[in-house]
Amino acid sequence: MGNTRHSIEGGQPSSFEHSKLLYVSTSKYEGDWQSILHSHPFSELFYVVNGNGSFIAEGSEFPVSRNDMVIINPHVEHTEKSLHTTPLEYIVLGIDGLSFSSTDIASVQDGLSMQTASGAVYKYNMTNSNVYAYLNIMLEEISHKEDNYESVCQNLLEVLLICMLRNNHLSIVQSSNTILNRECTQIKNYLDANYSENITLDTLASITHMNKYYMAHAFTKYIGVSPINYLLQKRIQEGKSLLESTSYSIAQISTILGFSSQSYFSQTFKKATGKTPIQHRNEFRKENV
């Protein structure tokens, strides 16, 4: 009986240990394509399973076809177009905490490397790799959601990244939070200026071109409260000012602040301050006679 043992020698520490798989999605063109430029504060991997089309990144367009992998770094505006005759079918991964770079553009073999105003985009063909197999296992895990599927998907992501780095001499760097913090500040400024409007998570997501759940998570982490709670806090703060400095009725103030009803305003105000709007106004006036 033949027996061969391969020893594992000490390896290098992972360069993407702080990366996080945010989502795995599949899409197929079926005649209802919405080709809209958008961006994300995280990286995306766009793998073409079948079909032909083109990819657009900040004004530049290039063709994509089966087994092509497109890397989109954070905050690069992009979209894709499909040919009607050979519709695109693809898998997309959203990855937080890292971005891709190449010290030598020519080192990205058999592909395309493009530097946009916001960041880099890379494309290369993955025919001779196991990437599609790893993506299929990842899809199966995330669809069935059996015990510890998150760990399996995260580990598969690291395997996939290693395969990509081997084949194309790319490098991975941890993403800076500077741009993400700028997006959160933009949301905060928008809420400060438009607190009286009917604002939802979808409203804020459309402003920043971010996934609304990821946007809410990032805002909460950066500001300390969720976007909706921040909006309510802003309205209560402005409500105190109006109660103290004007003779508007509670109903008028409720409308000015954007609450759907006077009762909802009163309920929210009391929950936040421990007093009803009338009690707050009366106590303020008594203290400032």
Question: Topology, please?
Answer:
Blueprint lengths: L19 E9 L14 E8 L1 E6 L2 E6 L2 E5 L5 E5 L6 E8 L1 E4 L9 E5 L4 E6 L5 H14 L4 H20 L2 E4 L3 H17 L6 H8 L3 H12 L3 H19 L4 H8 L4 H12 L3 H11 L2
CATH top level of the largest domain is Mainly Beta
Largest sheet: 6 strands, antiparallel
Mean pLDDT: 83
Helix and strand pattern:
EEEEEEEEEEHHEHHHHHHH
Rg is: 25 Å
What percent of the residues sit in helical stretches (DSSP H or I)?
Answer: 40-55%
Distance between the termini: 100 Å
Structural class: alpha+beta
Side-by-side strand order of the widest sheet: 1-7-2-5-10-9
H/I helix tally: 9
Brief synopsis:
The chain is an alpha+beta fold and 289 residues long. The protein has helices spanning 131-144, 149-168, 178-194, 201-208, 212-223, 227-245, 250-257, 262-273, 277-287; strands at 20-28, 43-50, 52-57, 60-65, 68-72, 78-82, 89-96, 98-101, 111-115, 120-125, 171-174. It starts with 19 loop residues before the first strand and ends with a helix.
Describe this structure in words.
There is one protein chain. With 289 residues, the protein is an alpha+beta fold. The protein folds into 2 domains: 155 residues, Regulatory protein AraC (Jelly Rolls); 110 residues, Homeodomain-like (Arc Repressor Mutant, subunit A), CATH 1.10.10. It is 42% helix and 23% strand. The protein is built from 9 helices and 11 strands. Strands 1-7-2-5-10-9 form a 6-stranded antiparallel beta sheet, with helices on one face. The longest helix has 20 residues. The chain is elongated. It starts with 19 loop residues before the first strand and ends with a helix. About 3% of the residues have low confidence.
